[in-house]
Each structure stands twice: as C-alpha cells, then as structure tokens.
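Sequence in, structure out. First:
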Amino acid sequence: MTTWWNDLSFLQQVFYIIAIPSTLVLILQMILVLFGMDSHDFDVDASVDTDVNIGDIASFKFFSIQGLVAFFTMFGWTGVIVSGTKIGWLLIIVISTCVGSISMFLIALLLFGMNKLQSSGTFDYKEAIGSNGKVYIPIPKKREGLGKVHLSVFSRMIEADAVTDYEEDIKTGTYIRIIDVIDNNVMLVEKSND
C-alpha cells in the first residue's frame, strides 16, 4: 500500500486526500437519507438581490453541505482520473473544478426541486378569490351569521365559512362566487350565474 502511495505524484496524492474522505461523507449522507435522518438545518444560505420572484429563489441554495460534499467528491475523483494523463496540472485543476461545480449545481437543483414538492399543508384563503362554489349551509343575509360553502381551488376541495351582503339569505345548493376574504378566513360571497 505504501509503495502504491509513494509511486503517485504529489497532485494525485492531493486528489486522493480530497476524494476519499468526501466520498465517505457522501456515502454517510446517503445512508442517513435512506433512514430518514438527514437534516437540512446545516445549509448555508446565499442571499440574492434581484427582482425575480424571491419565493422561488430563496429555496435555491447553491452552497449547502450536500452540494459541497458533491463538489469535493467529484473534484477529487475527476482529478485522480485526469491526473493519470499527460495534461498539465493547471488544466487538471480547471477540469476538476468544472466537474465539481456542475455536480454542486445539480445537487442544488435537485434539492430545490425536492423543496418545491414540500407543502406546509396550510391553505391561503386569498387564493380562493374569484373561485366558484356551492352553498352547503345557508348563508344569512347582510352578514347576520355564517353559512358554509364548498369550493375547489387548484384542484383542492375546501369547506369554508361564508357571509354575504345580499338582502336575502342564500339557500343551500346555490352557486356562489368568492369576492373577498374577511375576518380570519371567512369568505364574502355573491350569487353566481354559473
């Protein structure tokens, strides 16, 4: 083993020193993910000042523990492979850095996609404005009490409390349209022609 190590060039030794520990960490990360013990609390945030939708950008983390491990793993193994050729050491480092950066970007893209799949499970009732629904429990006139409506928002069926400004009650089975959201997720409705 020591003969093999001593036969390597200094650059190859450096790449092995980077590749082997980072590969072990990568394997450990994969094992933790398989058993559901991964943690995203160690991600390093990078702020981005732009006019693009910050809600989407904020969850894209280029620099994360997973991304850095992927960078060093690919950087190291690419360096090990390429250093066996007759390419100059500067080009070897450039190629290794490019491959490592691409792998870090792909990991960031993967984590971003997985983050987009997560849902908090809460529903923003403001998204229902303009939606049509049907009265489930009669809605008293002039906001004199609460009724209930069923509606579909983004293919999600919800039941919500509702009031109206109409001069008469809106009966069960009547089609309605949501015109506003008031007082802690209570829908203000009007009759709909649909």
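Second:
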Amino acid sequence: MNRFLLPHFPTHPFFVWTSLACKIGVTALASAQVIGYRLNRMVVAGPILSTKDRREFTLMGEEKVAAVTESAQAMATTMMVLTGKAQVQAYKQMLTANFANMSLVFSQTPAQFVARQIKLNRDTITYSDASTSQLSHSAARLINSGLKPFQSRVTGNAKRLAKKR
C-alpha cells in the first residue's frame, strides 16, 4: 500500500483530530497552571525581585522565544515534506486520470465505453476520498508539529513549578 494513502476508515480523521484536541487540552491546562504560578510569584515579589524571581522571569521570556523558533522550524520542515508528498500524489492522480480518459476515448464498443467510464468514475472517487483524508491528516500533522515545542515546555514547567509549591 502506498504510504501516502491512508487506509479507508470513515472515522480516521475523527481520531486524528481528537488526538490533536486532547494534546491541545493538556497544553492549555498545563499553561493555566504555569500562568497561575508565575502571576502569583509576580504579585508576591512586588517591585523588587529576588535573584530566584529574576531567573524565573528571564527563563519565561527566553523559553517563549525558543518555543516560537522551534515551532516555526518544525512546521516549515513538516510543510516541505507534506508539499513534496502532495505534489507526487497530484502528479499520480493526473497521470491516472489522463490514462483513463485516453482509454475512454479509444473505446471501440459502447459496452467498452461504459465499462471504462465506470472504472474512471470509481478510480476518481477512490482517489479523491483518499486525498481528502490525507489532506486532513496532513493538516493535523502540521499543527501537531507546531504544538510540540510549546507542549513540551509548558508541561515541563507545570511539573517543575508544582514541585516548588
């Protein structure tokens, strides 16, 4: 089976997007914990920061810049891979459709014409169904690659800061 085409499961996009939604939910919950802890530290620290507070607040800014950079890089890399796969898939579809159309044009009997028309329609529907599923899966992969750096930092911070309480 071609690695680019997913097995035909009508619910497959549901599982891919549900998994992504769960990851976003985990990231949001951990983010709320980290924001709560850090806001509390800012209120308690007041205008005069201790060395520990200065280090934590500096880390906060640095990790945001690093996460954005890693996210952009991961999404760009994923996009290049997915774009190449999509181009290959589109080219294969075009060749298949052209071959089927030429076969249809050179039909010698009405029965042969109808049989080839049915095959053309079936192949076109199969390819478009697989392409739609693959597009959905690719979009989820792209979003997931951009989310990973944020999720790893936020959940790591939530664990680290929970120990300090």
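Remark: The CA atoms of residues 3 and 104 lie 29 Å apart.
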